[in-house]
């Protein structure tokens, strides 16, 4: 059996958020590109399909992330396909997700203070930030949420649903679970994890679906000296024309 199936996912801690804030960003200005144009990757923009206000019907990632995704997709065993659920994310969507989760935590656990609620929420959703020195990971175009499907497009069992608020959503959680019911899901997580890391990504340990390349999380977990992606956004026609007119006037 391939090492993709047999190599366990290591138990890793969440980042030290204060250290993460201090990771320098040496912006490389790679453009955002639409993942849906690839014939090697399936795209299902999950938040748009769930009708989250402000969510977009495309998954954009930085151009180098796009190439890494293709690399990961090509290493998957026959019958398994990479599915991208989310990439670059508008800050309004990030704010909605974070506010919704923290409000639910407050309702469910009213004795917690604000910092405790934020700490719990951060295992699933980052606070919304367009701070150029510490942006939300998905706002950089370097974060991507992924899963697997079969050749017919059926989503593969990964042990929990995408974005499920469960301790079993931690990437390595199934490594500690015994029994026949989790064998397939455990192997599928390993395949995804090992394929993505071999392509150069890092994984957020509390989310089996979340991977990073080029941003501060990637720098932190891959021990890189600096991140190469900060805040970005898809080109608008207004910004494109502004750039062209500026060049014309020089």
From TrEMBL:
<keyword id="KW-0224">Dipeptidase</keyword>
<feature type="binding site">
    <location>
        <position position="210"/>
    </location>
    <ligand>
        <name>Zn(2+)</name>
    </ligand>
</feature>
<dbReference type="GO" id="GO:0071555">
    <property type="term" value="P:cell wall organization"/>
</dbReference>
<comment type="function">
    <text>Catalyzes hydrolysis of the D-alanyl-D-alanine dipeptide.</text>
</comment>
<dbReference type="InterPro" id="IPR000755">
    <property type="entry name" value="A_A_dipeptidase"/>
</dbReference>
<feature type="binding site">
    <location>
        <position position="145"/>
    </location>
    <ligand>
        <name>Zn(2+)</name>
    </ligand>
</feature>
<dbReference type="Pfam" id="PF01427">
    <property type="entry name" value="Peptidase_M15"/>
</dbReference>
<dbReference type="GO" id="GO:0008237">
    <property type="term" value="F:metallopeptidase activity"/>
</dbReference>
<dbReference type="GO" id="GO:0160237">
    <property type="term" value="F:D-Ala-D-Ala dipeptidase activity"/>
</dbReference>
<keyword id="KW-0479">Metal-binding</keyword>
<keyword id="KW-0961">Cell wall biogenesis/degradation</keyword>
<protein>
    <recommendedName>
        <fullName>D-alanyl-D-alanine dipeptidase</fullName>
        <ecNumber>3.4.13.22</ecNumber>
    </recommendedName>
</protein>
<keyword id="KW-0378">Hydrolase</keyword>
<keyword id="KW-0482">Metalloprotease</keyword>
<dbReference type="InterPro" id="IPR009045">
    <property type="entry name" value="Zn_M74/Hedgehog-like"/>
</dbReference>
<feature type="site" description="Transition state stabilizer">
    <location>
        <position position="89"/>
    </location>
</feature>
<keyword id="KW-0645">Protease</keyword>
<feature type="binding site">
    <location>
        <position position="138"/>
    </location>
    <ligand>
        <name>Zn(2+)</name>
    </ligand>
</feature>
<keyword id="KW-0862">Zinc</keyword>
<comment type="similarity">
    <text>Belongs to the peptidase M15D family.</text>
</comment>
<dbReference type="GO" id="GO:0006508">
    <property type="term" value="P:proteolysis"/>
</dbReference>
<dbReference type="GO" id="GO:0008270">
    <property type="term" value="F:zinc ion binding"/>
</dbReference>
<feature type="active site" description="Proton donor/acceptor">
    <location>
        <position position="207"/>
    </location>
</feature>
């Amino acid at each position: 059996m391939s090492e993709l199936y047999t190599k366990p996912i290591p138990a890793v801690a969440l980042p030290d958020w204060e250290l993460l804030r201090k990771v320098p960003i040496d912006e490389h200005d790679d453009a955002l590109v639409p993942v849906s144009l690839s014939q090697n990757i399936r795209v299902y923009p999950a938040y748009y399909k769930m009708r989250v206000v402000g969510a977009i019907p495309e998954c954009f990632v930085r151009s180098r992330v796009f190439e890494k995704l293709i690399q990961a997709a090509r290493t998957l065993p026959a019958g398994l396909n990479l599915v991208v659920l989310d990439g670059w994310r508008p800050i309004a969507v990030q704010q909605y997700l974070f506010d919704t989760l923290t409000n639910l935590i407050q309702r469910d656990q009213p004795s917690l203070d604000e910092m405790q609620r934020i700490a719990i929420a951060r295992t699933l959703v980052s606070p919304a930030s367009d701070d150029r020195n510490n942006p939300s990971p998905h706002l950089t175009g370097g974060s991507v949420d992924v899963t697997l499907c079969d050749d017919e497009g059926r989503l593969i069992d990964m042990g929990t649903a995408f974005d499920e608020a469960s301790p079993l959503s931690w990437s390595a959680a199934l490594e500690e679970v015994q029994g026949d019911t989790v064998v397939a899901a455990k192997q599928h997580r390993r395949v995804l994890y090992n394929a993505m890391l071999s392509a150069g990504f890092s994984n957020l340990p509390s989310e089996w679906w979340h991977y990073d390349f080029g941003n501060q999380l990637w720098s932190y977990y891959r021990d890189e000296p600096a991140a190469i992606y900060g805040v970005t956004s898809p080109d608008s026609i207004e910004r494109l024309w502004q750039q062209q007119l500026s060049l014309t006037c020089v």
